[in-house]
Design a protein that fits this description.
By secondary structure, the protein is of the alpha+beta class. The chain is built from eight helices and four strands. It has helices spanning about 5-30, 30-45, 50-55, 60-75, 80-90, 100-110, 130-140, 175-185; strands spanning about 115-120, 145-150, 160-165, 165-170. The longest helix is centred in the first third of the chain and has 23 residues, at about 5-30.
Length: about 190
């Protein structure tokens, strides 16, 4: 019996929620503030392993998740539209799909603005100047304005991993070391 691909299930849930969030935010004229709140929440996820585990864990009840998300939102200064969205997601036990919802919302918002979206993974936070240089370089390659979403992952050691659509450019030190390790095994 084949096992269902949970990443596809999560992706479908994330896209539906993100699409609904975008449509409602567009109707209310709060797309930019929702995007800022999404970014703020993504930073919280990136910086807290405990929050990542909480979001992904099926152990907590919907009530516990709702209380925790409400408290976190208040502490982070996330209110109004996006805070209510987070509560709906928690009440419906869909917090596990939240990272995908954030990513999907960014793609939808970028498409709406006529931009393309790029996911960038870096070993450390990028400065505003570095982000602008990266946007300019990606615009030169794609011919369109590029909205980037940066995720910090120290495990890549250095360099960047850039995903634009179905294309990925991996200049991470981790990948280069893995390639070198494989090459050395083949020689020896």
């Amino acid at each position: 019996m084949p096992v269902a691909d949970t990443s596809q299930l999560t992706s479908g849930v994330a896209e539906r929620y993100a699409s609904s969030l975008f449509e409602l935010a567009l109707e209310e004229g709060v797309v930019d503030s929702v995007a800022a709140d999404l970014d703020r929440f993504q930073v919280m996820l990136d910086e807290s392993e405990d929050l990542k585990r909480f979001v992904m864990s099926p152990v907590f009840s919907a009530e516990d998740q709702l209380k925790a998300i409400a408290a976190l939102s208040e502490k982070a200064g996330i209110s109004g539209f996006f805070a209510n969205f987070l509560k709906v997601v928690a009440r419906n036990r869909r917090l596990f799909a939240l990272p995908g919802m954030i990513k999907a919302f960014r793609v939808i918002a970028a498409n709406h603005r006529g931009e393309i979206s790029a996911d960038v993974t870096s070993a450390h936070a990028l400065s505003a100047e570095q982000e602008n240089e990266l946007k300019a370089a990606l615009k030169g390659v794609t011919g369109k304005d590029v909205a980037i979403a940066v995720t910090v992952d120290p495990s890549i050691l250095g360099g960047l991993i850039v995903k634009v659509g179905s294309r990925q450019i991996d200049t991470s030190l981790r990948t280069k070391l893995s390639t070198l390790k494989l090459a050395l095994k083949e020689v020896g």
